[in-house]
Specification:
616 residues, Rossmann fold, six-stranded mixed sheet, four-stranded antiparallel sheet, 20 helices, 64% helix, elongated, binds adenosine-5'-triphosphate
């Protein structure tokens, strides 16, 4: 079982929460929960730190904007208590100052708000850009073993749904959060200045508020972790169906897929319901506490005004401030909501970012000498700690320039041997050497230029046919691309495409057949000119002219290099210098095709006979 699969009830041993291991765990212990939160905070910090200066500027803007907006009620209090009585006595200057000041503060408020929103949008968009790029770069470098267990759907959900929820926190909530916190601080201070006893009545409301916030954080945190997991499952189901759409339609799997989707979709909805329910309870509690405080303040204030120990203007200002005190708390419920959702997303993303490639590049790489001799020295291999040994300990030497065909039943271990040569995995024990250098000591780039693997699917990237061939050597000129295509016999059909070499392979008219895709892959390999070619021959059979074309191309590509071919065709095996028959992870026969056939008793001879019979 890979790391991405690990699920269940609890995470126990020391480091088992690291990476994506805790993703599927619903009930985290407090200690693990705290570690995950610290990791998320670390990621957030690393995103904000390079933008500290501009973030401080945004903070300064929002502080000024709050000050401007807070001046309003004070000016109204001054107008009622001093401006209007003075105006009644014929002096309108105080009232004029108050009104002018109010208008000025309103203008400043708007301008500062606009500047803050623009700046914070810039910060948030850059943070997201940075995070998306970081995640993409990291995921691309993670080893095959991670991708095999984590699945592309989950990666997509990290890159889309999770990213969006972090974006929402920055875009919708940052100003609300600053406003709310600053309003609380400033208004709290103003209330204390205006009237201490009334301010203390308001502060008493904080006790239930803090309790409600703690409850909300716990409940919504749990609910949002569930929503992140659920949306990932919806996307996984979507991606899997779309990737396998041919198989889905061929096997009439639509209904089955729809019912799986329905279940995942419903659990996403339910997870969201519980998250929103928590918001509803929290927001309602905040409002209730706010209104209750207002009623109490109004009662106590009215009693004091009638008793003469408080001015009416002060009470007016107090109630105005109190409204402003609780309004942002409503927003704070939204912020807490976005925060819970975003921190669940941050937890998942930071988990992926914490995953380390299992196939590591050496710190001090050794250059690979020319030549393509391959050596397996006491190699043993299993896919993961808890899976069985696939290749029991073995030795194998392939001299430079030899073409070796691997044959054997399905699941015998042929691809595994090939993947070790291309260093998609490292052996569990022993070493694989190329020209005498352990692959673990070679730089990635060096290795990729010396060993090229052509896989069965002959994957084409979006772009033109020429772009796809040039992947083999990005610096190649058009002439070199065309001569590589010509050498493998692909020039004719490419030239006949609607835009020749510039035809987009994803567009109608640019779609290539299986045999044509194979020829493009050969041209790509020929252009790359590696010392070692690892080839997983496509299993689907081609028509006779197609097969002949591919066969001729193959012979061209194999010239002057070491080749390891997982062979599915007799014609391929027969051009090999050497055949290795693999059975249960062991090499049971090793010799030239002619010798093995001549011996007549072994697996290969039987396979050879069966092949001949099938062709007869
Ligand atoms: N990523 C993986 N994780 C765990 N086990 C794997 C993985 N890939 C292959 N195996 C197991 O390793 C064994 C050898 O598989 P391998 O793909 O090398 O066989 P093969 O000879 O290439 O088969 P085929 O001809 O069908 O491609 C099989 O038992 C398979 O189940």
């Amino acid at each position: 079982m890979g790391r991405g699969d690990r699920g269940g009830e609890g995470v126990s041993d020391e480091d088992s929460w690291r990476g994506v291991a805790a993703e599927e765990v619903n009930d985290l212990g407090t200690a693990v929960g705290a570690k995950l939160q610290a990791r998320s905070r670390g990621l957030l910090g690393s995103l904000i730190r390079p933008r500290l200066l501009v973030s401080s500027a945004a903070l300064a803007l929002v502080v000024l904007q709050n000050l401007a907006s807070l001046a309003g009620p004070l000016l109204i209090a001054a107008a009622i208590d001093r401006g209007i009585p003075a105006a009644i006595n014929g002096d309108t200057s105080v009232l004029a100052w108050c009104i002018g000041g109010y208008a000025a503060s309103a203008v400043a408020n708007s301008l500062l708000l606009m500047a803050f929103l623009r700046l914070s949008a810039r910060i948030s968009q850059n943070v997201l850009l940075d995070l998306r790029a970081r995640l993409f770069r990291h995921v691309q470098r993670l080893s095959l073993s991670f991708h095999e267990s984590y699945t592309s759907g989950k990666v997509i959900s990290r890159l889309t749904a999770d990213m969006e929820s972090i974006g929402k926190l920055f875009e919708d909530s940052l100003d609300n959060m600053f406003n709310a916190v600053l309003s609380l601080v400033f208004i709290g201070a103003l209330l204390l200045i205006l009237d201490v006893p009334l301010a203390l009545v308001v502060m008493a409301g904080f006790v239930p508020l803090v309790l409600a916030l703690r409850w909300f954080r716990r409940t919504s945190g749990r609910a949002y972790r569930r929503t992140r997991g659920a949306i990932a499952k919806v996307i996984v189901q979507f991606v899997e169906t779309m990737n396998g759409i041919r198989a889905v339609q061929a096997f009439r799997r639509e209904h089955r897929n729809e019912s799986i989707m329905e279940t995942e979709n419903a659990s996403y909805r339910d997870a969201n319901y519980s998250a929103i329910n928590a918001v509803a309870v929290f927001a309602a509690s905040v409002r209730f506490i706010g209104n209750l405080s207002l009623a109490i303040v109004l009662g106590v204030g009215a009693w004091r005004v009638t008793g003469g120990s408080m001015e009416l203007g002060v009470l007016t200002a107090f109630t105005l401030y109190l409204r402003r005190f609780y309004d942002p708390l409503d927003d704070l419920a939204q912020v807490a909501n976005s925060y819970a959702s975003a921190s669940a997303a941050l937890e998942k993303i930071s988990g992926v970012l914490e995953e380390k490639p299992t196939v590591l590049e050496p710190a001090n790489p050794k250059p690979l000498p020319p030549g393509g001799a391959i050596e397996f020295d006491q190699v043993e291999f299993r896919y993961s700690k808890d899976s069985p040994v696939v290749l029991p300990r073995f030795d194998l030497t392939i001299p430079a320039g030899q073409t070796v065909a691997l044959v054997g039943a399905t699941g015998a271990g042929k691809s595994t041997i090939a993947k070790l040569v291309a260093r998609f995995y490292d052996p569990t024990a022993g070493s694989v050497r190329l020209s005498g250098v352990d692959l673990r000591d070679a730089a990635d780039e060096d290795l990729r230029s010396k060993v090229v693997m052509v896989t069965q699917e002959n994957f084409l990237f979006s772009g033109s046919v020429a772009d796809n061939i040039a992947i083999g050597r990005p610096t190649a000129t058009r002439g070199e691309i065309e001569s590589a295509a010509a050498a493998v016999g692909a020039h004719e059909f490419i030239a006949a495409l609607p835009d020749g070499y510039d035809t987009d392979v994803r567009k109608r008219g640019g779609r290539l057949s299986a045999g044509q895709r194979q020829l493009v892959a050969f041209a790509r390999a020929l252009l790359a000119n590696p010392a070692v070619l690892v080839l997983d021959e496509a299993t689907s059979s081609l028509d006779v002219p197609g097969e002949r074309a591919v066969q001729a191309a193959l012979e061209t590509v194999l010239t002057d290099r070491t080749a390891l071919i997982i062979a599915h065709r007799l014609s391929t095996v027969l051009i090999a210098d050497r055949v290795l028959v693999v059975e249960g992870g062991r090499i049971v026969e090793d010799g030239s095709p002619a010798d093995l056939v001549a011996e007549g008793r072994g697996e290969f001879a039987a396979l050879h006979r069966a092949w001949l019979e099938s062709l007869a």
